[in-house]
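Reading a protein record of the kind used here takes little practice once its layout is understood. The fold follows as a row of integers, each naming the local backbone shape at the matching residue. With these conventions in mind, the following record can be read line by line:

_____
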Amino acid sequence: MAKEDYYELLGVQKGVTAEEMKKAYRKKAVQFHPDKNPGNKEAEEMFKKVSHAYEVLSDPDKRAAYDRYGAGAFEGGGGAGPRGPAGGAGGFHDPFDIFREVFGQQGGGGGGGGIFDEMFGGGGGGRDGGRDGADLRYDLEITLEEAAKGVEKEISFRKAMACERCDGSGAEPGSKKITCSTCRGAGQIRRSGGIITFTQTCPTCGGAGVKVEKPCTACRGDGRVAKNTKLNVRIPPGVDTGSRLRSSGNGEAGQAGGNPGDLYIVLSVKEHEIFERQGEDLFCEIPIKFTLATLGGTIDVPTLNGKASLKIPAATPSGTTFRLRSKGMPSLRGGHQGDQLVRVQVEVPQSLTSEQRKILEEFARVSGDAAEPTSRSFFEKAKKFF
């Protein structure tokens, strides 16, 4: 994934605006979402790629680093996160880390797998020389209504959890840990390469400095077993496609005293049959009768919170846009509500009864439309061509 062009993955040019990039990502996310492509591994892989590309390019600092250094700016080891341009641990701000504690643990058990994979890779050092657990990713699709009001979802997935038989130690009950004979408890070994001496993690004990005398029969000495688990996910109002929620400690369990990884919920919002989201505003088109556009009147229009009354002035042209204040999406940070934009399109009758035709012909005659079928202002501009 790191070798591909992130702009090409999203189908945009390098100078694209943030809003245009978000729209492009939405389309790609909908196209490749695993729920719309069940069993299609290629689509699932593309979904991961475009999500990763948008995660980088949607952050100004990360985008600047990518434009200058390419994907190599984000390659790095362990659980330290993205790496900065100089090769050290990155200091980039993550715009999708909405909050850290967003879940309530329900305990183990439960059914079947959601869509998840190892992301942002764990493997860093934990306490006592242990290995930190990997971070996990779960892709969750919600409706526009759920994004507007907030919702609680139960998700289920499979992950590595601490072995109950050995309590995560990897040692058979009654057995004990002994000092590693390879590194003699140091957790590292030194290798000489001529005038240079290299230090590396001990391959026997994995850096722990100790190994089990008798491996646990349940986990085979790993200290972890794969189990199904369930979580309640609390999604706040105002999230959008690409928003990412983080639950600290709900990734895979660490090994030999290592810290657990985190769980990341990456959201995508389904396309709505009526509304199109434009930031915090909602947009919709409503067809109206030509008589209403001519004479004026009041109509009911749909909103995410029920119906609202909209006054149509007399002589309203087709394509006129009206604004319903505070009927759009809530701000993710609270304290603000977007608007709803309603564009009316005047419908022309496709067929007329004899009575309707007679009345319209009389109207045309009285109005002089037969003699002047176009507006006078247009005729004055165009008469030089006749």
About this structure: The two ends are 62 Å apart (CA to CA). Residues 29 and 294 are 42 Å apart (CA to CA). The chain has a mean pLDDT of 80. Helices lie at 6-10, 18-32, 41-57, 60-69, 144-149, 290-295, 354-367, 376-382.
